[in-house]
Amino acid sequence: MHFRPTRHRLAKRLGLLLFPLLAAWIAGLIWFAAQIPDNEETSTTANDAIVVLTGGSERLGEGVRLLAEGQGKKLFVSGVYRGVDVRALLRLSQDAPEELACCITLGYEADDTRGNARETAAWIAEEGYSSLRLVTAAYHMPRSLLLFRRAMPDVAILPHPVFPEGFRREDWWLRPRSAWLLINEYSKFLVALAVNHIRDI
Architecture of 47-162 per CATH? Predict the structure, then answer.
């Protein structure tokens, strides 16, 4: 005679199934946190281009500073809202020299990081460049590098992280905002990794 499993047995079986997945997810999150840069990029190696991903004013300011120091021939800002021009962006960056306007290009097509990678790849190819310095938030860097290297396998990409005040890598688990940013970014990283894997099949 067959009996239906009790609710307790079903819960136990579900727990046995979910526990390894949860353990793997947590281990992956810890690994991901360790991949996030925790210090400023100090390399003075000049690249063909400086690429800034929109999403924080400190990114633009850093990109403009690098351009002014000659760390790239041109600055490309990806994911800009339509209607915003170069001079408007320069006004957002304190002490940005007006003469830099001629060396800044804005990209309006991207609305996510994958779009940033595609948009930048098209611009890099058009300019004939072979290297770039990528400026984005430290917690955003692992996923950005994954997608940019996928889109531009033959382009040398130097990461240049910036460090927003709202994110603390060293004790993120104690800070709700930092924990949320990290978990959200880790989830997006897993999706990007899965999409890349599917496209390789």
Answer: 3-Layer(aba) Sandwich (3.40)
